[in-house]
Design a protein that fits this description.
Layout (H helix, E strand, L loop, with lengths): L3 E5 L4 H9 L3 E5 L1 E2 L2 E2 L1 H10 L11 H9 L5 E6 L26 E8 L2 E7 L1
Parallel strand pairs: 1-2
Antiparallel strand pairs: 3-4, 5-7, 6-7
């Protein structure tokens, strides 16, 4: 499996060379709010022949991917555990009313071990 790392064009050239020396392919993208521009990244991945990407990240990456329109399928996993004050899986999308919520199309729920998975399309 080939390791591809995305970085902004403001990343340290020295750090990029170190990663490349270790065998990684580094793709540099435009910077968007100090982060990797996900639309630019997807275009560049397409040029490398990559047509499907799994994004597994924190709430900020997840919400950015949805806002930038690079997501077409969502898998949400929920464990039957209560810890309180948990961190959400998706950061702010700027939606204030439930009537404006993004509805998943063709949602399917499955049990995976003791977890629940909701799969749907945007």
């Amino acid at each position: 499996t080939k390791l591809i790392i995305a970085a902004t064009n403001k990343a340290s050239k020295n750090d990029i060379k170190k990663l490349q020396h270790k065998g990684a392919t580094v793709i540099t993208t435009k910077s968007k709010n100090g982060m990797v521009d996900l639309q630019d990244l997807m275009k560049q991945l397409g040029r490398h022949g990559i047509t499907s990407v799994m994004i597994e990240g924190g709430s900020q990456l997840n919400s950015s991917a949805i806002k930038e329109g690079v997501v077409d399928k969502v898998l949400i996993f929920t464990a039957p555990k209560l810890i309180g004050n948990g961190i959400g899986a998706i950061g702010s999308l700027g939606i204030k009313k439930i009537s404006n919520a993004i509805n998943l199309k063709n949602p399917v729920c499955r049990r995976i071990g003791s977890d629940m998975m909701v799969e749907g399309y945007l």
